[in-house]
Amino acid sequence: MFRHDHDPPDERAEADLSRLFAQYREALPDPEPSADFTPRLWQKIEVRQSTNRQVKRLAQGFVTAAAAVSLLIGVFLALPQNRVSSFYAHTYLEILAADQGPGDPEDVEIVRTEQVVHETSR
Amino acid sequence: MLVDFELISRAREGDEAAYSQIVQAYRKRILGTIARLIGRPEDVEDVGQEVFLRLYFSMDQLRTPEVFEPWLYRLTVNAAYDYLRRQRRRREARMADLSEQQVMLADAAAGSRRQETEQRHKRVRELVGSLLGAISQQDRILLSLKEIEGLSLKELAKIYRVNENALKVRLFRARQRVLKAYAGSQAATAQARGTE
Is the Cβ of A15 closer than 8 Å to some Cβ of chain B? Predict the structure, then answer.
């Protein structure tokens, strides 16, 4: 395509290639943008913005739901703990005493029997 | 710079009118660069829109207005690279499109001067396209920016965020490979002429 017989082959090929690149630039000049280039661009920007907004809203909803679920789990975990703590609020002896209070007929009987045994032994 | 720093600062702060002015100023140049990088005129506008879309959503990441142009070129290179990667997956469809295009061009050929120029341009486009096909897509874009777009090593170093020496080595190797492909194509042409 490009010949210069007096140049060494490498230099000639280098020069040919540079010229070829320059011709390529000429063959593909900067194209004129279409009339609707900018309006179409704004449309795409708006679509992407609304998608981003939806994703953001979805993410916020997810965060809120996650917080609510966490709160519920917290409450569920807290409630049984309260019951357990009230159960263990008294000592074993206190509960035993409450179970076998002075009004228990068996206890009265035991006391009476002991008194009778004691009096007869005298 | 096609716009002043103040306009870029305003666009960065969310001023839509300023952003529109930037698009207006740069769109033709960016479309030209994309056309030469991808070599498919019908897809140039779509890739160009993707560049400006990415620009809009990344303006707030721009550190200073001074680095705007390398930033815009980086977005352009990335969008062109993404496009070429997608095209590689659709190569078969592309071959079908090209043959259709060639048929249409052959039908339209009537020997007028304008058509002769178009034919010559077409030959150059095809030849350069095939030569650049001898190197990887990354090297193709790098070499195109240097040799066809005329960007300096300094500008390329800013775009690629690597030092100039590394770029020189990469460019030299890419150019050597293209030269080898060029020598091969010349030999093939000479052989074809010899057999005629």
Answer: no
Q: CB contact, 8 Å: A32 with chain B?
A: yes
Q: Does the model's ipTM exceed the 0.85 cut?
A: no
Q: Which residue of A has its CA nearest to B44?
A: A31
Contact yes or no for B69/B114 (Cβ under 8 A):
no
Mutate to test the interface with B, among A28, A45, A49, A53 (most CBs of B within 10 A): A28
Average pLDDT over residues B47-54: 96
| Cβ <8 Å between A40 and B56 | no
Question: Which CATH number among 1.10.10.10, 2.40.50.100, 3.40.50.2300, 1.10.287.1080 corresponds to the domain B116-196?
Answer: 1.10.10.10
* pLDDT confidence tier of residue A108, bands split at 50, 70 and 90: low
What pLDDT is attached to residue B88? 77
| Greater pLDDT, A35 or A10 | A35
CATH topology of domain B1-89: Rna Polymerase Sigma Factor; Chain: A (1.10.1740)
Whether A31 has its CB under 8 Å from any CB of chain B: the answer is yes
> Nearest CA to CA, how far is A66 from chain B (Å)?
29
Decide if B182 and A27 are in contact by the 8 Å CB cutoff.
no
Top pLDDT among B1 and B14 is at B14
Any idea where the domains of chain B sit in the sequence?
A: 1-89, 116-196
pTM: 0.69
CA B50 to chain A, closest CA, distance in angstroms equals 8
Quote the pLDDT of residue A28. Answer: 86
**Residue B94 scores a pLDDT above 50:** no
